[in-house]
Write a structure and sequence with these properties.
The protein has 95 residues and is α+β, with helices and mostly antiparallel strands. It is built from four helices and four strands, in the order βααβαββα. Helix 3 crosses helix 4. The radius of gyration is 16 Å and the shape is elongated.
């Protein structure tokens, strides 16, 4: 029995690529060329930490993982759902 359903690609992009315009452009060009359905999950932890510092907060990390209390969650949401998401969406639309 053949399966004619389109593929689903799930791609996770780390924050370091999100912050590197040339690397992000290459990734998004390749991502756009994937056939079928696709989902892009992006990071942005470095930007979130920078934002926390600019707000007088101290990022808390345990074994490389962010400790996300209520105030940190607000900052992470601002960065990920705000700038990162909007920037990546605009670049994908340009593709």
């Amino acid at each position: 029995m053949s399966n004619n359903r389109p593929h689903l690609y799930l791609v996770k992009v780390g924050g370091k690529i999100v912050e590197d315009p040339a690397a992000l452009k290459l990734l998004l060009t390749a991502f756009s060329a994937l056939p079928g359905y696709k989902v892009l999950v992006h990071g942005g932890g470095v930007m979130a930490s920078q934002m926390q510092k600019s707000m007088g907060m101290v990022p808390q990390m345990v074994e490389g993982r962010r400790v996300t209390d209520e105030e940190t969650l607000k900052v992470v949401t601002m960065v990920y759902a705000g700038w990162c998401s909007k920037h990546i969406t605009a670049l994908l639309q340009a593709e």
